[in-house]
Amino acid sequence: MHRYSNTRELGRHFLQIPGPTNVPDRILRAIDRPTIDHRSVEFAQLARECLEGMKMVFKMDSGHVFIYPASGTGAWEAAIVNTFSPGERVLMFETGHFATLWRAIAESFGLVVDFLPGDWRHGVDPTVVGSKLTADAEHEIKAVICVHNETSTGVTSRIGEVRRAMDAANHPALLIVDVISSLASIDYRQDEWRVDVAVAGSQKGLMLPPGLGFNAVSEKAIAVSKKACLPRSFWAWDSMLEPNESGFFPYTPATNLLFGLREAISMLVSEEGLQNVFHRHYRHAEATRRAVQAWGLELLCQEPEEYSNSLTAVLLPEGFDEAEFRRLVLENFNLSLGSGLGKLKGRVFRIGHLGDFNDLMLCGTLCGVEMGLRKSGVPFRQKGVEAAIEYLSSELREQTCVSK
Ligand code: PLP
Fold it and tell me: What is the position in ligand 1's atom list of the atom closest to the CA of 203?
């Protein structure tokens, strides 16, 4: 029970972890319908709208989007088992906790992973990608596998530059990217960057509850998968392609989540527009960074070009425990913040500012953090929320000027 009331929870909970994110009422209403027959004409129409709509979200014209009733971890596994044969060599990068977990999946399927070490404060270095591939004259490396936005660190890797480094090395490796916390929040371009497999989930920028996993796959990767021989059954792209043509799935799909997905695609693509979605995320991220810097706290991400627009990871000073800080914030202000993951446990808390979110929700979140800092005794300067408000208001003034 929260300290401000010992009888009941007052107002709405602030869910500002970096996913699952807040589900808009419109999406909840869309999901809140009687489940329909997944072999009906009505369902086929729904599935086609989702499959085609997701291509717009991934920014792809060719290839195929596979939708699984699964979390992101399932979609990670799907990307691996459809693409490789045992013993094949791949390049992965230690950008944080999620890159480390994905590596473990690849290794558990017998891939030989060249896992390039990192400090969890930087993204994938495109020059290292270039030199590794150039040195691989025999083309033994079958894929470059990256996490676009490391949700554990708030660092966004520059996938366009990774692609350019691969092209400069003239290497045929596949490019496989986890876009779980970047899709529909941070600009992602499947076709332009010639990404072969992108892995996504429903519970972040898509503003849905957890439960859908995605593989967005190029024609090249579909061709490679026909020869790949890792064991697969539930995840097999092959068995999904034909039924999807007519709007069906080889097994029972998550029907009601697909109602929600159709609504989300409409909100993001047709109504707000993806460029506006990205700009909104940039604004909220920039306001958050200004607040953190004004507090005199340290951003975990050390490279401004790699600042994440979907979350901000903040280092607490030595001697202060993030779990204790988050507990205090939750109990006093009904605000959930993201925890420190893996080797950042105890040291870093994360502010999620992705998904369905507006200026006042951000201000409330930052107020919760600032009040938590006051109560916890963490040394900080007072004016973080003010810095964020100043930035948000000046940006609004600029927008007004432009539209006149
Ligand atoms: N990859 C990234 C970047 C994530 O943020 C997450 C979860 O937060 C995952 C993978 C794993 O996804 P899930 O927890 O849905 O299985």
Answer: 15
Which of 180, 257, 354 to mutate to test ligand 1, by most ligand atoms within 8 A of the CB atom?
180
Atom 14 of ligand 1, residue of closest alpha carbon: 72
| Dist. CA 398 → ligand 1 center (Å) | 36
Does ligand 1 lie within 6 Å of residue 213's CB atom?
no
20 lines ligand 1 (CB under 6 A): no
Could you tell me if 307 and 404 are in contact, meaning their C-beta atoms sit under 8 angstroms apart? no
Q: Specify the residue with its C-alpha closest to ligand 1, atom 7.
A: 72
Which residues, including other chains, have CB under 8 Å from residue 379's CB and lie 6 or more apart?
296, 317
Q: What SS3 class is residue 247?
A: coil
Token couple for 88: 């094949």
What is residue 64's predicted lDDT score, i.e. its pLDDT? 98
| Separation of alpha carbons 260 and 48, rounded Å | 14
Cα distances (angstroms) measured from residue 215 to each of 70, 189, 201:
11, 14, 9
Of all helices (H) and strands (E), which one includes residue 132?
helix 126-135
Ligand 1: centre distance to CA 73 (Å): 6
Q: Which atom of ligand 1 is nearest to the CA of 75?
A: 16
Tokens 């024609």, residue? 219
**Number of residues that this document lists for the chain:** 404
Q: What average pLDDT does the segment 18-43 reach?
A: 98
For residue range 237-255, list pLDDT tens digits in order. Answer: 999 999 999 999 999 999 9
Question: Quick one: pLDDT band at residue 9, thresholds 50, 70, 90?
Answer: confident
Amino acid (1-letter code) at residue 72: G
**Ordered DSSP codes for 223-243:** HHHHH--S--STT-HHHHHHH
Helix (H, G, I), strand (E, B) or coil at 404: coil
